[in-house]
Design a protein that fits this description.
By secondary structure, this protein is an alpha+beta fold. 48% of the residues lie in helices and 14% in strands. It is built from eleven helices and six strands. A six-stranded antiparallel sheet has the order 3-2-1-6-5-4, sandwiched between helices. Helix 1 (2-25) packs antiparallel against helix 3. The model is unreliable at 22-33 (pLDDT under 50).
Length: 298
């Protein structure tokens, strides 16, 4: 299976090089083809450096092959876990009129995080290039710093509204905590939070919280403080600013933390009561064991 994956990857990039070489020799017959002209112009000036192209392609191919387990993973286990959390959503949160979301964040290496971030924000999310404000925000939150990050392993919601590009830095100390996900990870204990409702506050056009009216500023400050969010940019990039949160850490086979299971909900009343959580715990342990299982779920 891996040999097939590598063959596909090599074929794609070899084809890219052949296309670039071909483009060098084509003639532009119609000056109205502005996009083709532009590509030809760039290629005509860069194609002379064939060694650079070959070297760059080798690097890209090597990186992708090293990370083949992420880019072309076997999806059996992930689909099984996704189905499981979908069932958990139906069992415990069957009111489709109230937004509820279940997410599993997994500790991810820096290089893989970059691939994930680029894939969701610039390839699948190619439309982000048409929104200048969103594009700037995405770039500001790019994982430039070498570190482990929390990336989305599985997510489901009701009603369906999924954003899979959210990432948080894995904290190495208390001062690094910048989210409820990071707090649950650092404390290694379940967290229940009820935050102010700030869904109706438009943050997209402001550069500082001080630009908000006093009452809205107070709510946003409280939301950030209780949600362990340190910067306005990080708050902006969180697509769903829910009211209620429940988060708990999942451990690997050696009892080291590996994932964070988190539910966010917008009900008027906090759903995470002492009656629900004991019933929810066996499902979380089952999902944890499924994630820790070596290989695919057969």
């Amino acid at each position: 299976m891996k040999s097939i994956r590598n063959l596909i990857i090599n074929t794609i990039f070899s084809g890219l090089i052949v296309c670039l070489q071909y483009m060098k020799n084509i003639s532009i017959e119609n000056e109205a083809h502005t996009l083709l002209n532009y590509i030809y112009y760039l290629n005509n000036h860069l194609i002379e450096y064939n060694i650079f192209y070959i070297f760059l392609s080798v690097i890209i191919i090597s990186i992708i092959q090293i990370n083949a387990n992420f880019l072309l993973p076997s999806q059996v286990k992930r689909k099984f876990i996704l189905k499981t959390i979908e069932e958990v959503l139906k069992i415990f949160f069957d009111n489709k009129n109230i937004y509820t979301r279940i997410t599993i964040f997994k500790k991810t290496r820096w290089v893989n995080t970059i691939f994930i971030y680029i894939w969701h924000n610039f390839i699948k999310g190619i439309g982000n290039f048409c929104n200048k404000k969103k594009l700037i925000l995405i770039l500001k939150n790019f994982p430039f710093r070498p570190n482990y990050y929390f990336t989305i392993y599985c997510r489901t919601s009701s009603p369906k509204q999924l954003n899979l590009s959210t990432i948080f830095a894995v904290p190495s100390s208390q001062s690094d905590i910048d989210s409820i996900v990071a707090k649950a990870w650092a404390e290694m204990t379940p967290i229940r939070k009820t935050l102010p409702n700030i869904e109706d506050i438009d943050l997209s056009s402001i550069k500082s919280i001080d630009e908000l009216p006093r009452n809205k500023k107070s709510k946003v400050n409280k939301y950030m403080q209780q949600g362990y969010i340190k910067s306005l940019n990080k708050l902006k990039v969180i697509d769903r600013k829910s009211i209620h949160y429940y988060a708990t850490t999942m451990v690997d086979s050696e009892d080291d933390p590996s994932c964070v299971f988190i539910i966010d909900n917008n009900d008027t009343k906090a759903p995470f009561d002492d009656e629900m959580l004991p019933s929810l715990s066996p499902f979380i342990r089952f999902i944890q064991n499924a994630i820790n299982r070596k290989g695919d779920m057969l």
